[in-house]
Amino acid sequence: MSTPITLPRIVEHKRGEVAAARVACPLEQLQDDVAAQQPPRNFFAAVSTGNGPGGVNVIAEVKRQSPSAGVIREEFDPVDISLQYENAGAVAISCLTDEHFFGGSLSTIRTIKEAVRIPVLRKDFLIDQYQVWEARAAGADAVLLISECLSEGLLMDMLILTHELGMTALVEVHDMEHLLRVLQHVGFPHPGYMLLGINNRNLATMKTDISHTIRMLELAEEHLDILVTESGIKTPADMAHMVRHGIRRFLIGESLLKHDRPGDALRALVGTPWT
């Protein structure tokens, strides 16, 4: 029987990846590469104050596969998908860069950035500041920081580095304990560089429940302007349910990528005039 793909297993594998990457490309080389980059696009503003269709702001995700869904798209053209998303009104792109479990690649960020005008997030399992430098060197405008993967001290260090590099951090939590921990640091080290994500996927069962975000709102309601709900949004009814609770920022991928034309799927999802 194969070992289930859990967050601890992914993090363990990621440690080996980071160690190998440090040998292949020393930090000093990454820092030189970052110095040669154009400034990041403003991911925070795009998501928090953007003007997405129907008054909802969608970060649309590009990924080939996932541990829970398997291969999502056999024919995978990340640039074409990203352009479809942009044309359908997405305010930003989330690019899955984990290679081993999600079939992604860090180099995809640059090819997407060259094609679209909206900002791009590196979505991966970041456990080391080296990966933040890596993301910026690849052209990323933002990084996902998963609270469950990071000690409090390391999370603070990575937030500081993200700010210093002019990037946005989307800090993701999955449960009340981590939400309470992260809420203490909203706006750190400077307002305008941090978004708060709540993932509706149960990390133990890999099942999604969109009501999970709503149950967490009692603690996070004052941060609705930076709150992003992630995973499980499949239908206009799902989105309307969230909007009724004041949630207007979404990270959506799998349900769009299963359609032949992901852009058309996004257009249909946000086509309702929410009230």
What do these coordinates show?
This protein is of the alpha/beta class and 275 residues long. The protein has one domain (7-269): TIM Barrel. It has 12 helices and 10 strands. The protein has helices at 7-24, 27-35, 43-48, 78-87, 107-115, 129-137, 152-164, 176-183, 211-220, 236-244, 254-257, 262-269; strands at residues 57-62, 65-66, 70-71, 92-96, 120-123, 142-146, 168-173, 194-199, 227-230, 249-252. The strands form 2 sheets. The protein has an 8-stranded parallel β-barrel, surrounded by 6 helices. A two-stranded antiparallel sheet has the order 2-3. Helix 2 (27-35) runs parallel beside helix 6, helix 4 crosses helix 5 and helix 4 packs parallel to helix 12.
Q: Approximately what portion of the residues adopt beta-strand conformation?
A: 15-25%
Fold-level CATH name: TIM Barrel
Number of helices, where a helix is a run of at least 4 consecutive DSSP H or I residues: 12
CATH homologous superfamily grouping: Aldolase class I
In terms of quaternary structure, the protein is single chain
The shape, in one word, is globular
Structural class: alpha/beta
Order of helices and strands: HHHEEEHEHEHEHEHEHEHEHH
Write down the Rg: 17 Å
Q: What is the number of domains?
A: 1
CATH class designation: Alpha Beta
Regions with little confidence, pLDDT below 50 for 5+ residues? none
* Spatial sequence of strands, sheet with the most strands: 1-4-5-6-7-8-9-10
Overall pLDDT level: 93
